[in-house]
Design a protein that fits this description.
It is elongated and about 55 Å long. By secondary structure, the chain is an alpha+beta fold. About 20% of the residues are buried. Helix 1 runs antiparallel to helix 2. A hairpin with a 2-residue loop joins strand 5 and strand 6. It contains 2 helices and 8 strands; from the N terminus they run ββββββββαα. The chain folds into 2 domains: about 80 residues, ATP Synthase, domain 1 (Sandwich), CATH 2.60.15.10; about 45 residues. The longest helix has 25 residues.
Length: about 140
């Protein structure tokens, strides 16, 4: 299995994925990085965006993550995600509705703490919408 690296995706609720892959591209806070078998060890924070999993030299799965942490070793990459969902399971209309409601919460929040919490959620929903649009090519 030297031509594969084990990719594990863990959310606060459970282990979402653990499988050998050719390559995985992760949205690090300093930019996207690809991980292949034999990669040098390192760790990175993860920003809200898409993880892309490659098999047979093509993207086979896209997963939206709302941030987290990645740890890379030569034979394994583990992402501890704040939230993770397959792109095809994201309903664009529902995301757009949450964005509208959160924009109202940011504008009309009772206090600075409530507005800041709404702003943080808004940022994730906007990243989710951008990821869905990019993944669909629309």
């Amino acid at each position: 299995m030297a031509d594969k690296i084990t990719f594990e995706l863990v959310s606060p609720e459970r282990l979402l994925l653990s499988e050998p892959v050719e390559m995985v591209v992760i949205p690090g806070t300093e930019g996207n990085f690809g991980v292949l078998p034999g990669h040098a060890p390192f760790a990175s924070t993860v920003r809200a965006d898409l993880i892309e999993i490659y098999q047979d030299n093509r993207v086979t799965r896209r997963i939206f993550v709302a941030g987290g942490f990645a740890e890379v070793s030569p034979d394994r990459v583990t992402v501890l995600a704040d939230e993770a969902v397959l792109v095809e399971e994201i309903e664009r209309g529902a995301v757009e509705a949450r964005i509208k409601a959160l924009e109202d919460d940011v504008r009309d929040g009772a206090d600075e703490v409530a507005r800041a919490a709404a702003q943080a959620k808004l940022f994730v929903e906007q990243a989710k919408l951008a990821a869905v649009i990019r993944a669909s090519g629309a």
